[in-house]
Amino acid sequence: MEDNMIGNAGGDGSSVCRLCPRNCGVDRADGKKGICGCDATVRVARIALHFWEEPCISGEAGSGAVFFSGCPLHCIFCQNRRISGGAGREIGIRELAESFLSLQAQGAANINLVTPTHFVPQICEALRIAKAEGLVLPIVYNTSSYETAETLDLLNGMVDIYLPDLKYTDGVLAERYSHAKDYPEVAKAALDVMVNQVGKPVFDDNGMMKKGVIVRHLALPGHGRDSREALRYLWEHFGNRIYVSIMNQYTPPKQDLRYPNLNRKLSEQAYDRLVSYAISLGMEQAFVQEGDTAEESFIPDFDLMPEKIR
Ligand code: SF4
Protein backbone atom coordinates (compact mmCIF):
# COMPACT_ATOMS: atom_id res chain seq x y z
CA MET A 1 0.00 0.00 0.00
CA GLU A 2 1.38 3.41 -0.93
CA ASP A 3 1.59 6.12 1.66
CA ASN A 4 -1.25 8.05 0.07
CA MET A 5 -3.64 5.15 0.52
CA ILE A 6 -5.01 4.04 3.85
CA GLY A 7 -6.85 0.95 4.84
CA ASN A 8 -9.45 2.54 7.04
CA ALA A 9 -10.98 4.94 4.55
CA GLY A 10 -14.23 4.34 6.40
CA GLY A 11 -12.81 5.92 9.54
CA ASP A 12 -13.93 2.96 11.65
CA GLY A 13 -11.08 0.53 10.99
CA SER A 14 -12.79 -0.95 7.96
CA SER A 15 -12.25 0.09 4.38
CA VAL A 16 -15.96 0.48 3.72
CA CYS A 17 -16.68 4.18 3.56
CA ARG A 18 -19.38 5.68 5.74
CA LEU A 19 -17.50 8.89 6.45
CA CYS A 20 -20.41 11.14 5.53
CA PRO A 21 -24.20 10.85 5.59
CA ARG A 22 -24.22 9.59 1.98
CA ASN A 23 -23.26 6.28 3.61
CA CYS A 24 -22.07 4.80 0.31
CA GLY A 25 -20.46 1.67 1.80
CA VAL A 26 -17.90 1.43 -1.01
CA ASP A 27 -14.39 0.11 -0.48
CA ARG A 28 -12.37 3.20 -1.33
CA ALA A 29 -9.08 1.53 -0.37
CA ASP A 30 -9.84 -0.90 -3.19
CA GLY A 31 -10.13 1.99 -5.66
CA LYS A 32 -13.94 2.31 -5.55
CA LYS A 33 -15.48 5.76 -5.50
CA GLY A 34 -18.61 6.96 -3.77
CA ILE A 35 -20.71 10.07 -4.33
CA CYS A 36 -17.75 12.25 -3.33
CA GLY A 37 -16.00 10.97 -6.46
CA CYS A 38 -12.83 9.93 -4.64
CA ASP A 39 -11.14 6.69 -3.73
CA ALA A 40 -8.84 6.58 -0.69
CA THR A 41 -6.03 8.46 -2.46
CA VAL A 42 -5.99 12.06 -1.25
CA ARG A 43 -6.34 14.66 -3.98
CA VAL A 44 -5.83 18.40 -3.67
CA ALA A 45 -6.66 21.23 -6.07
CA ARG A 46 -4.68 24.01 -4.45
CA ILE A 47 -2.34 24.59 -1.51
CA ALA A 48 -1.64 28.28 -0.94
CA LEU A 49 -2.02 31.30 1.26
CA HIS A 50 -5.63 32.44 0.91
CA PHE A 51 -6.84 35.96 1.65
CA TRP A 52 -10.60 35.73 1.13
CA GLU A 53 -11.83 34.20 4.34
CA GLU A 54 -13.26 36.21 7.23
CA PRO A 55 -10.71 38.78 8.54
CA CYS A 56 -10.07 36.82 11.75
CA ILE A 57 -9.18 33.77 9.65
CA SER A 58 -7.20 35.33 6.79
CA GLY A 59 -5.61 38.23 8.65
CA GLU A 60 -2.88 40.02 6.75
CA ALA A 61 -0.68 36.96 6.40
CA GLY A 62 -3.33 34.78 4.77
CA SER A 63 -4.87 31.50 5.74
CA GLY A 64 -2.92 28.37 4.82
CA ALA A 65 -5.57 26.79 2.64
CA VAL A 66 -5.61 23.26 1.34
CA PHE A 67 -8.48 22.74 -1.12
CA PHE A 68 -9.35 19.07 -1.36
CA SER A 69 -10.73 17.65 -4.61
CA GLY A 70 -14.17 16.03 -4.72
CA CYS A 71 -17.19 16.68 -2.50
CA PRO A 72 -19.91 14.56 -0.93
CA LEU A 73 -22.62 17.18 -1.46
CA HIS A 74 -22.52 18.40 -5.10
CA CYS A 75 -24.81 21.45 -4.90
CA ILE A 76 -26.14 22.36 -8.34
CA PHE A 77 -24.90 25.94 -7.90
CA CYS A 78 -21.46 24.89 -6.64
CA GLN A 79 -19.11 27.88 -6.53
CA ASN A 80 -16.05 25.66 -7.04
CA ARG A 81 -17.44 23.18 -9.52
CA ARG A 82 -14.12 22.12 -11.02
CA ILE A 83 -12.60 20.95 -7.76
CA SER A 84 -15.82 19.48 -6.38
CA GLY A 85 -15.88 17.51 -9.64
CA GLY A 86 -12.43 16.15 -8.86
CA ALA A 87 -9.88 18.45 -10.52
CA GLY A 88 -6.57 18.24 -8.70
CA ARG A 89 -3.62 15.98 -8.14
CA GLU A 90 -2.81 13.06 -5.91
CA ILE A 91 -0.85 13.76 -2.75
CA GLY A 92 0.73 11.37 -0.25
CA ILE A 93 0.10 11.66 3.47
CA ARG A 94 3.71 12.64 4.17
CA GLU A 95 3.62 15.25 1.41
CA LEU A 96 0.38 16.59 2.85
CA ALA A 97 2.04 16.87 6.29
CA GLU A 98 4.98 18.67 4.70
CA SER A 99 2.55 21.04 2.95
CA PHE A 100 1.09 22.02 6.32
CA LEU A 101 4.59 22.73 7.62
CA SER A 102 5.45 24.66 4.47
CA LEU A 103 2.36 26.88 4.86
CA GLN A 104 3.43 27.53 8.46
CA ALA A 105 6.92 28.47 7.25
CA GLN A 106 5.33 30.90 4.75
CA GLY A 107 3.67 32.73 7.65
CA ALA A 108 0.13 31.37 7.34
CA ALA A 109 -2.22 32.33 10.15
CA ASN A 110 -3.64 28.81 10.33
CA ILE A 111 -4.10 25.60 8.35
CA ASN A 112 -7.44 25.76 6.56
CA LEU A 113 -8.82 22.40 5.41
CA VAL A 114 -11.37 23.14 2.68
CA THR A 115 -13.97 20.45 1.80
CA PRO A 116 -12.08 17.83 3.81
CA THR A 117 -14.86 15.43 4.92
CA HIS A 118 -14.12 12.55 2.57
CA PHE A 119 -10.42 12.52 3.55
CA VAL A 120 -10.68 12.94 7.33
CA PRO A 121 -8.74 9.79 8.36
CA GLN A 122 -5.88 10.64 5.99
CA ILE A 123 -5.88 14.30 7.09
CA CYS A 124 -5.73 13.28 10.76
CA GLU A 125 -2.73 11.11 9.99
CA ALA A 126 -1.01 13.98 8.17
CA LEU A 127 -1.80 16.36 11.03
CA ARG A 128 -0.33 13.93 13.58
CA ILE A 129 2.90 13.78 11.56
CA ALA A 130 3.04 17.55 11.08
CA LYS A 131 2.31 18.30 14.74
CA ALA A 132 5.05 15.89 15.81
CA GLU A 133 7.39 17.83 13.53
CA GLY A 134 6.51 21.29 14.80
CA LEU A 135 3.12 22.37 13.42
CA VAL A 136 1.60 24.74 15.98
CA LEU A 137 -0.93 26.74 13.92
CA PRO A 138 -4.65 26.56 14.65
CA ILE A 139 -6.39 24.00 12.44
CA VAL A 140 -9.49 25.23 10.60
CA TYR A 141 -12.06 22.72 9.32
CA ASN A 142 -14.02 24.33 6.47
CA THR A 143 -17.10 22.25 5.68
CA SER A 144 -20.58 22.12 4.18
CA SER A 145 -21.73 20.67 7.53
CA TYR A 146 -22.94 17.53 5.79
CA GLU A 147 -21.11 15.52 8.42
CA THR A 148 -21.69 12.56 10.72
CA ALA A 149 -21.03 12.78 14.46
CA GLU A 150 -18.64 9.82 14.11
CA THR A 151 -16.45 11.61 11.58
CA LEU A 152 -16.46 14.79 13.65
CA ASP A 153 -15.41 12.69 16.66
CA LEU A 154 -12.24 11.76 14.77
CA LEU A 155 -11.40 15.48 14.73
CA ASN A 156 -11.91 16.07 18.45
CA GLY A 157 -8.74 17.63 19.84
CA MET A 158 -7.31 17.95 16.35
CA VAL A 159 -9.35 20.92 15.06
CA ASP A 160 -9.39 24.34 16.73
CA ILE A 161 -11.75 26.31 14.51
CA TYR A 162 -14.79 25.11 12.62
CA LEU A 163 -15.90 27.08 9.58
CA PRO A 164 -19.13 25.29 8.66
CA ASP A 165 -22.04 26.28 6.41
CA LEU A 166 -25.69 26.29 7.24
CA LYS A 167 -26.94 26.22 3.66
CA TYR A 168 -30.66 25.57 4.13
CA THR A 169 -33.17 24.94 6.85
CA ASP A 170 -35.79 23.63 4.40
CA GLY A 171 -35.44 20.00 3.31
CA VAL A 172 -37.23 20.73 0.03
CA LEU A 173 -34.53 23.23 -0.94
CA ALA A 174 -31.81 20.87 0.25
CA GLU A 175 -33.19 18.09 -1.92
CA ARG A 176 -33.69 20.36 -4.93
CA TYR A 177 -30.28 22.00 -4.86
CA SER A 178 -28.03 19.46 -3.10
CA HIS A 179 -29.86 16.15 -3.46
CA ALA A 180 -29.80 15.87 0.32
CA LYS A 181 -33.26 16.16 1.89
CA ASP A 182 -31.77 15.40 5.31
CA TYR A 183 -29.26 18.27 5.09
CA PRO A 184 -31.04 20.60 7.59
CA GLU A 185 -31.20 18.11 10.47
CA VAL A 186 -27.77 16.65 9.65
CA ALA A 187 -26.18 20.11 9.57
CA LYS A 188 -27.87 21.27 12.77
CA ALA A 189 -26.69 18.16 14.63
CA ALA A 190 -23.18 18.61 13.21
CA LEU A 191 -23.07 22.23 14.38
CA ASP A 192 -23.93 21.09 17.90
CA VAL A 193 -21.00 18.66 17.87
CA MET A 194 -18.62 21.33 16.58
CA VAL A 195 -19.64 23.92 19.18
CA ASN A 196 -19.39 21.32 21.96
CA GLN A 197 -15.91 20.35 20.77
CA VAL A 198 -14.25 23.75 20.56
CA GLY A 199 -16.42 25.98 22.75
CA LYS A 200 -16.84 29.74 22.64
CA PRO A 201 -14.77 31.89 20.26
CA VAL A 202 -11.30 32.85 21.46
CA PHE A 203 -9.15 35.51 19.75
CA ASP A 204 -5.55 36.61 20.18
CA ASP A 205 -4.44 40.20 20.79
CA ASN A 206 -4.44 40.84 17.02
CA GLY A 207 -8.03 39.76 16.59
CA MET A 208 -7.16 36.44 14.99
CA MET A 209 -9.38 33.52 15.92
CA LYS A 210 -7.66 30.79 17.90
CA LYS A 211 -10.67 28.65 18.73
CA GLY A 212 -14.37 28.65 17.97
CA VAL A 213 -17.03 28.29 15.32
CA ILE A 214 -18.02 30.68 12.52
CA VAL A 215 -21.15 29.47 10.75
CA ARG A 216 -21.50 30.70 7.19
CA HIS A 217 -24.73 31.27 5.37
CA LEU A 218 -24.54 31.98 1.65
CA ALA A 219 -27.69 33.92 0.81
CA LEU A 220 -29.27 32.51 -2.34
CA PRO A 221 -31.23 34.78 -4.70
CA GLY A 222 -34.97 34.45 -4.19
CA HIS A 223 -34.72 32.52 -0.94
CA GLY A 224 -34.92 35.26 1.68
CA ARG A 225 -37.35 33.29 3.81
CA ASP A 226 -34.98 30.35 4.23
CA SER A 227 -32.05 32.69 4.86
CA ARG A 228 -33.99 34.44 7.61
CA GLU A 229 -34.91 31.09 9.14
CA ALA A 230 -31.24 30.02 9.08
CA LEU A 231 -30.18 33.19 10.89
CA ARG A 232 -33.04 32.94 13.37
CA TYR A 233 -32.08 29.34 14.17
CA LEU A 234 -28.43 30.20 14.65
CA TRP A 235 -29.16 33.13 16.93
CA GLU A 236 -31.83 31.40 19.04
CA HIS A 237 -29.92 28.12 19.30
CA PHE A 238 -26.35 29.32 19.79
CA GLY A 239 -26.52 33.03 20.66
CA ASN A 240 -23.03 34.37 21.30
CA ARG A 241 -21.42 30.91 21.43
CA ILE A 242 -20.69 31.27 17.69
CA TYR A 243 -19.99 33.91 15.07
CA VAL A 244 -22.14 34.03 11.95
CA SER A 245 -20.92 35.04 8.50
CA ILE A 246 -23.65 36.33 6.22
CA MET A 247 -22.38 35.95 2.67
CA ASN A 248 -23.52 37.84 -0.43
CA GLN A 249 -21.08 36.34 -2.92
CA TYR A 250 -23.40 33.92 -4.69
CA THR A 251 -22.13 33.61 -8.27
CA PRO A 252 -24.45 32.12 -10.90
CA PRO A 253 -22.94 29.16 -12.77
CA LYS A 254 -21.86 29.76 -16.38
CA GLN A 255 -24.58 27.46 -17.70
CA ASP A 256 -28.16 28.37 -16.84
CA LEU A 257 -29.78 26.20 -14.20
CA ARG A 258 -33.42 25.20 -14.52
CA TYR A 259 -34.23 27.30 -11.45
CA PRO A 260 -34.29 30.95 -12.67
CA ASN A 261 -33.59 32.34 -9.17
CA LEU A 262 -30.14 30.79 -9.28
CA ASN A 263 -29.21 32.31 -12.63
CA ARG A 264 -28.73 35.78 -11.18
CA LYS A 265 -26.73 37.38 -8.41
CA LEU A 266 -28.23 38.31 -5.08
CA SER A 267 -29.47 41.90 -5.19
CA GLU A 268 -27.94 44.46 -2.90
CA GLN A 269 -31.39 45.20 -1.50
CA ALA A 270 -32.03 41.54 -0.67
CA TYR A 271 -28.70 41.30 1.14
CA ASP A 272 -29.33 44.54 3.04
CA ARG A 273 -32.74 43.23 4.12
CA LEU A 274 -31.11 40.05 5.43
CA VAL A 275 -28.49 41.99 7.38
CA SER A 276 -31.24 44.22 8.81
CA TYR A 277 -33.10 41.09 9.86
CA ALA A 278 -30.00 39.80 11.68
CA ILE A 279 -29.72 43.14 13.49
CA SER A 280 -33.42 43.03 14.39
CA LEU A 281 -32.89 39.60 15.96
CA GLY A 282 -30.25 41.15 18.21
CA MET A 283 -27.41 39.20 16.60
CA GLU A 284 -24.15 40.68 17.87
CA GLN A 285 -21.41 38.51 16.40
CA ALA A 286 -21.72 38.50 12.64
CA PHE A 287 -19.52 39.17 9.65
CA VAL A 288 -21.11 40.91 6.69
CA GLN A 289 -19.73 41.57 3.24
CA GLU A 290 -19.61 45.00 1.65
CA GLY A 291 -19.96 45.92 -1.99
CA ASP A 292 -20.20 43.56 -4.93
CA THR A 293 -18.23 40.50 -3.93
CA ALA A 294 -20.07 38.26 -6.39
CA GLU A 295 -17.41 38.60 -9.01
CA GLU A 296 -15.65 35.69 -10.62
CA SER A 297 -12.39 37.15 -9.39
CA PHE A 298 -13.54 36.42 -5.83
CA ILE A 299 -13.38 32.71 -6.60
CA PRO A 300 -9.81 31.43 -6.40
CA ASP A 301 -8.17 30.31 -9.60
CA PHE A 302 -7.61 26.57 -9.56
CA ASP A 303 -5.79 26.42 -12.88
CA LEU A 304 -2.54 25.52 -11.17
CA MET A 305 -3.52 21.90 -10.88
CA PRO A 306 -5.65 21.09 -13.89
CA GLU A 307 -5.32 17.32 -13.85
CA LYS A 308 -8.80 15.75 -13.97
CA ILE A 309 -9.87 12.95 -11.71
CA ARG A 310 -10.06 9.63 -13.49
S1 SF4 B 1 -17.11 10.14 1.95
FE1 SF4 B 1 -17.62 9.66 -0.22
S2 SF4 B 1 -17.67 7.42 -0.36
FE2 SF4 B 1 -17.70 7.96 1.80
S3 SF4 B 1 -19.87 7.94 2.36
FE3 SF4 B 1 -19.35 10.06 1.80
S4 SF4 B 1 -19.76 10.29 -0.38
FE4 SF4 B 1 -19.74 8.10 0.10
Helices and strands in order:
Elements (H helix, E strand, L loop, with lengths): L42 E8 L4 H4 L4 E6 L12 H4 L4 E2 L2 H13 L5 E4 L5 H13 L6 E5 L5 H6 L6 E4 L6 H8 L4 H16 L3 E2 L5 E10 L5 H15 L4 E5 L20 H14 L4 E3 L22
Bound molecules: iron/sulfur cluster.
Notes on the structure:
By secondary structure, the protein is an alpha/beta fold. The protein has one domain: Aldolase class I (TIM Barrel). 30% of the residues lie in helices and 16% in strands. The chain has helices at residues 55-58, 81-84, 93-105, 120-132, 149-154, 171-178, 183-198, 224-238, 268-281; strands at residues 43-50, 63-68, 89-90, 111-114, 139-143, 161-164, 202-203, 209-218, 243-247, 286-288. Strand 8 (209-218), helix 8 and strand 9 form a beta-alpha-beta unit. Helix 3 crosses helix 4 (120-132). The radius of gyration is 18 Å and the shape is globular. The protein binds iron/sulfur cluster (SF4).
Work out the helix count: 9
Helix content: 25-40%
The computed structural class is alpha/beta
Amino-to-carboxy terminus distance:
19 Å
Oligomeric state: single chain
Bound molecules: iron/sulfur cluster
| Named CATH architecture | Alpha-Beta Barrel
Task: Count the E strands.
Answer: 10
CATH superfamily: Aldolase class I
- Give the CATH level 1 class: Alpha Beta
> What series of H and E elements makes up the topology?
EHEHEHEHEHEHHEEHEHE
- Tally of separate domains: 1
* Integer average pLDDT: 90
Q: Which consecutive residue ranges, at least 5 long each, have pLDDT under 50?
A: 1-7, 294-310
Fraction of residues in β-strands: 15-25%
The CATH topology, please? TIM Barrel
Instruction: Report the major sheet.
Output: 10 strands, mixed
Provide the gyration radius in Å: 18 Å
Gross morphology: globular
